Amino acid sequence: EKKRRLSVDQVRSLELNFEMENKLEPERKKQLAHELGLQPRQVAVWFQNRRARWKTKQLERDYESLKASYDKLLLENKKLQAEVSSVSVCEVLRREV
User: Helix, strand, or coil here: 85?
Assistant: First the structure.
């Protein structure tokens, strides 16, 4: 059987169901397949692929969040190191006076 693309309505329905529950019980999978005019296997594969895409997006979001925290801490660390350096210079100058 030739593989055909899902319609916009089918994808919309699958997305809505995914938002409610990202894993399907066998009975729900059959029901959804029947409602959408698809084979249960097509629904199962769509959910499997969608979970994989969700996981990848989640990893990207986590990475961006961690990178932002790291960049902020790096900047804070540089400021503190500059303060320590200036305090050290002041201490040396005071001793010389």
Answer: helix
76: how many CB neighbours lie within 10 A of its CB?
Answer: 10
Asked if the structure places residue 3 within a domain, the reply is: no
pLDDT category at 44 given cuts 50, 70, 90 is very high
Q: Is 40 exposed, middle or buried (0-12, 13-18, 19+ CB in 10 A)?
A: middle
pTM: 0.67
**Residue 19: CATH number of its domain:** 1.10.10.60
| Cα torsion through 89, 91, 96, 97, rounded to 10 | 110
Rounded-to-integer distance, Cα 43 and Cα 72, Å: 43
Domain tally for the chain?
1
| Residue range(s) defining the domain that contains residue 45 | 8-96
pLDDT, position 49 = 97
